[in-house]
Amino acid sequence: MSIRNTLFAAAFGIASLTAAHAEGLRPIEAKSINLGGISGVAYYTVERDGFRVVATLAQGETGTPFRVVSLLTPGQRLLLSTPQPAGVIEISREGDSVLVRKPNTASN
């Protein structure tokens, strides 16, 4: 293997490790989300005007739960964030799919 091919393979491997990983979600399927000290679940339902995303979160085991509700049309996204380094989750609608991912914070 040439040095050029080795460098290309190494660069591709590093890029793969740092890329944001998106997970698809199905209607009514709950997805656990973790924003550092705040965690909970998110799900969506198909409504006439769009996909209604519901996230219920709380701080630790004893924190007061709170709910975030958003109606997403194709191409829209919802960011949930806290000041902690691990505290960003993006829920986006791409066509008829809803994706949950931790965005690459270096590009935001």
Note the gap between the termini.
Answer: 37 Å
Number of strands: 8
Structural class: mainly beta
- Helicity level, as a percent range? 10-25%
What is the number of independent domains?
A: 1
Strand percentage lies at over 45%
Keywords: Signal
Signal peptide: 1-22
Describe what you observe in this structure:
Keywords: Signal. Residues 1-22 form the signal peptide. The protein is mainly β and 108 residues long. It has one domain (22-107). Helix content is 15%, strand content 46%. It has one helix and eight strands, in the order αββββββββ. A hairpin with a 6-residue loop joins strand 4 (51-59) and strand 5 (66-72).
Name a few traits of the molecule.
globular; four-stranded antiparallel sheet; single chain; 108 residues; mainly beta; disordered N terminus
Gist of the model:
This protein is mainly beta and 108 residues long.
Question: Could you give the topology of this structure?
Answer:
Elements: H1 3-18, E1 22-25, E2 31-34, E3 38-46, E4 51-59, E5 66-72, E6 77-81, E7 88-94, E8 97-101
Antiparallel strand pairs: 1-8, 2-3, 3-4, 4-5, 6-7, 7-8
